[in-house]
Design a protein that fits this description.
This protein is an alpha+beta fold. The chain is built from six helices and ten strands.
């Protein structure tokens, strides 16, 4: 018998970029876990989504929730990201990411928790009301593989690496990020709206920068998030200023 044709297209740079934008511009995502003591039944909930400086998705969850208990028992989980627009929901792009959860130690060595906390609050300002409660914790969801549906007839399989940022500038940019954001939002307040309108097809003039990393810019306006991806990751922190000037035009 003849083999059935594959429904998958060859994964190209355009598909990888779309997948990264879907993930990095998502305010929230559906999280699927394996519920403890349920004989392997999946449990799905909605979580706020953050992104670490290397592109790893981040969630903030309470120890009292079912999904936190599930992740503590079995680190395997999946995320579904993608906003539904007008018309048929299945005509809009969405991304499923299979991940392995890693709890972020609040009192561990290094500045990992502080970095993730700062990025999460800029992305979700209202989370500051509960982010420091002792029963809340961050989990980094390390991508293992992903499935992208870019719309009807546009299905792709991706590796976890396709969703991550690889650059020698990651750590230096993480150190400079907060000051750079403050400078841009205070001294060049029109830049974020220009980026959002010009590159993300967004409306409005009240946009602000909420994230800067080696691969792009995160933009926020009220309850909207947009992601501006560079054509290629920055290779040094010194390139950031030149890139932001170039994008402004």
């Amino acid at each position: 018998m003849a083999e059935k044709p594959s429904v998958l297209r060859e994964t190209d740079d355009e598909a990888r970029k779309l997948a990264r934008i879907l993930l990095r511009s998502a305010r929230s995502a559906a999280l699927a876990v394996i519920e403890p003591e349920s004989n392997g039944f999946p449990f799905v909930s909605r979580v706020l989504l953050g992104i670490d400086t290397d592109g790893t998705p981040v969630i903030l969850v309470s120890a009292l929730s079912t999904h936190t208990q599930a992740l503590s028992a079995d680190r395997r989980c999946s995320l579904l990201a993608g906003e539904i627009g007008k018309g048929d929901p299945l005509a809009h792009p969405r991304l499923t990411v299979q991940c392995e959860a890693e709890k972020v130690d609040r009192d561990g060595d290094g500045d990992g928790h502080a970095r993730i906390r700062a990025r999460f609050v800029r992305r979700h300002p209202k989370s500051e009301l509960y982010i420091d409660f002792p029963d809340f914790a961050f989990f980094r969801l390390r991508p293992l593989k992903a499935s992208l549906n870019g719309g009807f007839g546009r299905a792709y399989a991706l590796d976890g690496e396709d969703l991550l940022i690889r650059s020698p500038a990651i750590d230096d940019l993480a150190v400079a990020e907060e000051r750079a954001i403050e400078h841009m939002n205070n001294d060049h307040s029109d830049a974020a709206s220009r980026y959002a309108q010009l590159y993300c097809k967004a409306e409005g003039t009240d946009w602000r920068i909420c994230g800067l990393d080696a691969a792009g810019v995160d933009l926020a306006s009220s309850d909207q998030l947009k992601r501006l991806e560079y054509d290629a990751p920055l290779q040094s922190a010194a390139e950031l200023r030149m890139m932001l000037v170039k994008l402004y035009g």
